[in-house]
Amino acid sequence: MSAQPEQLPAPPPPPAPAAAAQLLTQLRADRRADTWVPAFERDWAKALEDARHTYSLTPLHDVVRTWQLRLAAAPAVDAYLDSGRDETDFIDLDDVLGARQ
To answer: Is the dihedral angle over the CA atoms 71, 65, 39, 80 positive or is it negative?
Structure first.
């Protein structure tokens, strides 16, 4: 018996052709634009270079999907931070794992 599935799951549909431009417009309108726009542009440039080397649009699609999810999750993160939850008892991950490079 093989441990591999007989059929691979269908890949997610590609984003719309203008999805990156629309996403960038939304990021520029967000209050986090000062940090998010340069980060998106950096991710996009890296994905574009990867796509040139692999002849695949997958890296570009992954950047768009990741940033769409990040933008969609932002209101929930804001609500959590605004709820006044006390996180003083938590341990910093760097204290547990050591400094990351």
So the answer is: positive
